[in-house]
Amino acid sequence: MKDYSVIIVDDHPVVREGYRRLIDLQPGLKIAGEAEDARAAYAQFRALRPDVVVMDVTLPGASGIEAIRHIRQYDDSARIVVFTMHLSAAFALKAVQAGAMGYITKSSDPRLLVEAIFGALRGQTVISPDVIEAIARDRISGIGTGLTDLSPRQTEILCLLARGWSAERIAGELSISPKTVRNNHYQIKSILGLETDAQLVWFALETGLLPAI
């Protein structure tokens, strides 16, 4: 039986070790590499060409959503499964829109992550039940209204703006120009019907794009 290679992307070494132990126990799966941020994830993917990437969405600097988008631009057949603490309909929808084939929360039964990895290998999408419930709840309440109109890149910029990053810092992190960041900043507020950056922060908190401290 072929061993399928997996790289794990998370900024916490202890969490990565937990991934490794779980995945190494599964017949047919092997850990090929690890990364702690979006840039390292992209470099690892290009160097190792794994069969599946297990990705957190909250990383230092650019988020996992940006990493997913970047990897999928390089290889549109890349199989990526999100495994995260964030029970957020917004993150889940944007992750899938960016190209993820699964979205599993860390509060789920660990077997669901394994199921999602093998599902991705079969070309299937697996979403944990708690996320499906959150998506349904947001659709009913209308909390996510407007967010679905943002592109993955605009969502990424919104996340970084909400963290208080400057246009110059965002531009450097995402390899775009400060002018592009500012143009998107204006477009995001226009799409969401917001007037101030404070409202952007509240919106990001309300939708789960920015975790509450």
TrEMBL record:
Return one GO MF term: DNA binding
HTH luxR-type domain: residues covered: 143-208
User: Which InterPro entries does this chain map to?
Assistant: CheY-like_superfamily, NreC/VraR/RcsB-like_REC, Sig_transdc_resp-reg_C-effctor, Sig_transdc_resp-reg_receiver, Tscrpt_reg_LuxR_C, WalR-like
One GO-annotated biological process of the protein: regulation of DNA-templated transcription
| Domain Response regulatory: start-end pairs | 5-121
UniProt keyword annotation of DNA-binding present: yes
Residues modified to 4-aspartylphosphate: 56
UniProt cross-references to Pfam families, sorted A to Z:
GerE, Response_reg
Presence of the UniProt keyword Phosphoprotein in the record: yes
PANTHER family in the cross-refs: TWO-COMPONENT RESPONSE REGULATOR (PTHR43214:SF43)
Recorded protein name is LuxR family two component transcriptional regulator
Q: What is the lineage of its organism?
A: Bacteria, Pseudomonadati, Pseudomonadota, Alphaproteobacteria, Rhodobacterales
